[in-house]
Amino acid sequence: MPIQAAGVLPSGLAEPAQFPGGATGKSKDTPEKIQKAATDFEALLIAQMLKSARESGGGMTGDGDEQDETNSTMIELGEQQLAQALSANGGLGIAKIVIAGLTNHANR
Question: pTM (2 decimals)?
């Protein structure tokens, strides 16, 4: 039987009590936290869309070199940076929707 660290679930996820404010939501979500969470979420979605587009097509360069691990890693990093830049500057508007929902939830 594998040894587990205290407070870590078998899946490797931390117990909710380890997070600031616990799972009860007692910590106050500031507008800055909500903004960061929303833009990070949108960046994650954009990065996933870019990755899916790259994997489904002939590749960004079209020369088939994307199979090389180093090249693939560099392209993924570039996609992540592009996604973060897009999200930070308005992106697809998903962050605005998430901000509205989280702000509504935080004010309850």
Answer: 0.61
- State which amino acid sits at residue 16: P
CA neighbor of 75 nearest in space, from 51, 44, 46: 51
Residue 79 CA, chain-centre distance (Å), reads 13
Per-residue pLDDT tens over the stretch 81-93: 999 999 989 889 9
Q: Which residues, 6 or more positions from 31, have their beta carbon under 8 angstroms from its beta carbon?
A: 103
Domain ranges of the chain: 30-106
- Model pLDDT, residue 4: 46
List the one residue out of 87, 90, 106 whose CA is nearest residue 30: 106
Indicate the burial class of 41 (C-beta count within 10 angstroms; 0-12, 13-18, 19 or more).
middle
Q: Which own/partner pairs from 47-54 qualify as long-range (CB within 8 Å, at least 24 positions apart)?
A: 47/79, 47/80, 47/82, 47/83, 47/84, 50/79, 50/82, 50/83, 51/76, 51/79, 54/79
